[in-house]
Design a protein that fits this description.
By secondary structure, the chain is an all-beta fold. The chain has a 5-stranded antiparallel sheet, with no helix packed on it. Strands 1-27-26-25 form a 4-stranded antiparallel sheet, with no helix packed on it. It is elongated and about 90 Å long. It starts with a helix and ends with a strand.
Length: 783
Amino acid sequence: WGRLFVAGSMLLGAMATGSTKVVEAATVPAGFTDVTVGGFDSPTAVEWMPGDRIVVLEKAGRVRVGRPGSATFSTALTLNVCTSSEQGLLGFTHDPGFTSNGAVYVYYSAATAAGCVNRVSRFTMSPDSSIDPASEVVLLDNIASTGGNHNGGDLDVGSSGELYVGVGDAGRDPRGDSGSAGDNDAAQDTSLLNGKILRITLDGLPAGGNPFTGPGTARCAFRGNDATTPTTACQEIYATGLRNPYRFAFDPNAGNDRFYINDVGQNTFEEVDEGAPNRNYGWPTREGPCPQGDTPPCAGPPAGLTDPITSYGRSLGRSITGGAFVPDGLWPAEYDGVYFFGDYVTGQIWQMDPSGVVDYGAPFATGANGLTDLTFGYTTGGEAALFYTTFSEVRMITPPAGDPAEAPDLKFVPIDPVRAYDSTNDAYTDTPGPVRDGTSRLIDLDPPAGAEAALVNLTMDSTAGAGFLRSWAPRTPRPATSSVNADRPGTIVANSAIVPLVDGEFVLEATTTTRVVVDVMGWFVPAPSATSDGRFVALDPARLADTRSPAGTPLDSGSTNPWSATASGYSVDVLGNVGVPDDGTVDSVAISLTTLAGDVIGGFVGAHPGNETWSGTSNVNVTRFDVRANLAVVPLNGGDSIGLEAFQVEDVVVDVVGYFTSDAAPSDTSGRFQSVSTFRAVDTRIPTGFGPLAAGSPQSTVLTAGDHAAVVQNLTVTGTSAAGHLSTHPTPTTPLVSNLNYTGPDQTRAVLAFTKLADDGSERYTSFVDTDLVVDVVGYFSE
């Protein structure tokens, strides 16, 4: 972009006035496809949004919003922008808690009475995707656009929840004490915001940890950038020495704030820099890996300056623009960790491997002329796609379709629960930090050989907003269904899930920024024929223990309430109670575990074999006055009880839904797990299956026409009318058990359930308050 002002005025004119250029598909590798998403008036940026929306910015000031496959994009907002040279509507991103607060951030060249300046503002987007102009809160203003070019314009939120902003050097020194183009020293002037990466809070304050703080520094958010500007260093500055950092991209595979900056060069090099605090990338002293104007071989950078991680010269391109990291596990394995970056003039897209190597002679794609931005999202079918802008379109590139393997029948191998992943703990990842909203992680569980799936407990903690987790097999389409739901910011919530594995890995996506913890309860391994161990025996759900009643006090289920207090929780006898045999044929028990927090700050319960020490995992997390339930499968390890480690909870309730057999059980083909492509069997909001649940009135639906003894399903209630609970059961009479608990109106909560089916393949659902219900079936246990 920077040099188009000088050497590419024809192209720049097309950008300024709306292009009529014919755009053809880029040339992509064999098996990949490149198709159009829609036509736009000089698109400058594309952003993937929560709720699977696409935001497209048009240079002249319109924010357009649509969905994959949509024939039309609505106009969410129109801003009064300057459009001369490279000015216009340039950057857009959303808040980590967008699903709760609707906050979005916009970088644009504002047309003011005093002239054209660059501005960063926060707006509020409504659920209908409209943006109220009156919601604008200006965070940075009066950033110089002296020459009209070199505005930068990108912005994004890092994993730590701070806003990063790329600002160009304005083309001509705003102070007027140097010059234009290669003579402009604004990028080295720490009293100006130009030629920098800035980092601020989401309210516009300088972020903690920025390099310029204390005496001799100042907040520069509104003070302007011209000859009269004070010379105190700006506290918003994160890194210096950039000419026109038009686009930068965070690595979604990392929990830290790892990002690459695409900086447009002058006459010799385009470059990619690795972002880090207090780095000086050398402009205008250096361009690419050399002193400005020189070509290799060149001496390394002087002390205090940082060279790019890669650069290319005039024979390959003339204006680096968009960049994006490939999310691990979504495309073919050879693309894991690859960074794509493209050139506006030559339309080539190159790929940098995780070690930093680029084969410039073999670009990933050619013919993407007019490219200004890249981002990853999904098609309507759930395939991961690379979206990019051209002169007049947004297009997307999708990889070859994989061949899904036929899922075998599986048996379950329980283990003492173990923590396999914690996104914020360096004991489990090399780059600790939250999973950013709208991004995914490829998680390796390191299972035993042959494991096709795992039973895990997924926990969301410190959520930035309402949202959910999805989980699926690597390099397959993303499902539409969720695994865990959080209905408000700042919550901690867990849910069990059966995750399919490929080479021991699965993909997990978060729709709100959150810490993610994965605890493993066991493995599913092939059982192509009759087996004695690992078969699920479904029982009519029944209450085994309830600490709200004294131990030994008989319950309505017939249980003797066999619990006892331990030093750190409870012990509950299982064998010989509520249908669980005491004959050596039981290896592990499947329970619905309900936890009541009471008037305490909140805590957790972790289930484990009663004769083993707790390993540090959790199954249910609660906050003050909360009530939560979750499915747990607990091995007995030769004992007859389960242990419940309880921290800052008031009571626990244990309902038994079935058990898995040991190798002492008869050999049989029943009870093997059969996975299916997840499908939505019930959605009372539409309605599918049946309509909204009325308090105390069971609704039923047939879930299978095959020979299945039990169903594995994810249950989600939404729009609850009050506090209550949901029970799933095969009989017309509702037993006194719960699968899912909610504590007030307008809550959304989810839980995994193993439920015995009636002889006709049906199941019943009872809620004790009015609510909507969504049922996603993920598999069955054979009859």
